[in-house]
Model the fold of this input.
Amino acid sequence: MKNSDYTRSAFKHVIAWLKNKNMQTSKIAMQKALFYLQEKGLPLRLDFEPYSYGPFSRQVMETASDLERAGEISVDRTDYTPGPEFADILPEKGRREINAHLERFCELLGHDFSFDNLELCGTVLYCLQALRENGMAVDRDSVIHEVEQWKGKKYARSAIKAAYDALAEEFVNTGC
Done:
């Protein structure tokens, strides 16, 4: 399976998984779930950059547009929904791996897929990884500082700390 095919299949599987769990398939949920999956090591090869609501990949939007043209999904203002030609064709091994990561993603979010929680957790993870990639200290204070530089006072320090603490267990000492 070519990487672009894998990315497209993973995208569709995330939609199917969220639908199966009766969770929202919002654009922000998809952006942050795919960002998390990539940070966990899945070879999605998506480019994420800091944006208004946390890490954002134009390639996610392009994939959605391609799937919409093929009749596989419908794209509205805020959500993606399976279309008449939708088929989750990810091989079983890939499904198991993504499912395990998505279960963990939900746990890290406290099963709260609200817009603000997705934005905050995505932003904290992006800052944490950016500090690491730039050879800087990765600790609670440095991540809080980076989030505040990006988001100003939008989020209380206690909320940033809670998001950091949830993500640190998975990303600070593991090398992910």
In short: The beta strands are 49-51, 54-56, 73-75, 80-82. The chain has a mean pLDDT of 94. The helical segments are 3-20, 27-39, 58-69, 92-108, 115-133, 140-151, 157-171.
